[in-house]
Amino acid sequence: MNDFFLHAFLALDAVLIAPFRLVDDARAGFACGILATALGAALLGRACAAAVDRVQRAKRNRQEAEIKRHQELSISALAVKDRETYLAANHLAQEAYGNAMALAAGRAAALIWPALMVLAWSTWRFSGVPLPLVGESAGPAVFFIPAYLAAQWGLGRLKRARAVRRGRTGA
User: Fold this and answer.
1) How far is residue 79's CA from residue 75's CA, in Å, rounded to a whole number?
2) How many angstroms separate the CA atoms of 33 and 92, rounded?
3) Which UniProt keywords apply (predicted)?
4) Which of 6, 8, 103, 114 has a Cα-to-Cα distance from 73 of 20 to 30 A?
5) What SS3 state is found at 130?
């Protein structure tokens, strides 16, 4: 079993280090590797979040409908000054809201786990290595986090532009 994990780790290490070795210059290779791993982590995170969203869709819709139903019931109970019904409906709405928030936390975890994995790997891989511009005073997170955030921002913009284009064409 330990051999399996060792071989899996070595295979993952080979995949992740490959973009760092695309160019001969160390600084350019480091920049290429950071950008490639950030983009890869962002893409994998978006794919995982979409998959989790797909799996959770029915339950999420049920929870949102339940929130709306209990919220409307509590508002109508408030209008007729029925305190007990208002408190009971409000409690059920809060419970459904908590369930919806837990589902959202699952989607968020699916979005960021690849970035955390790459960050852990790069910290291990470049431990003790002087990095461009910062030397040994900072780790690869200084470069990875802004690149990852930029990749997420860019992918978000692409997704919105694609949705707008689909809306215009009616597809």
Assistant:
1) 6
2) 49
3) Membrane, Transmembrane, Transmembrane helix
4) 103
5) coil
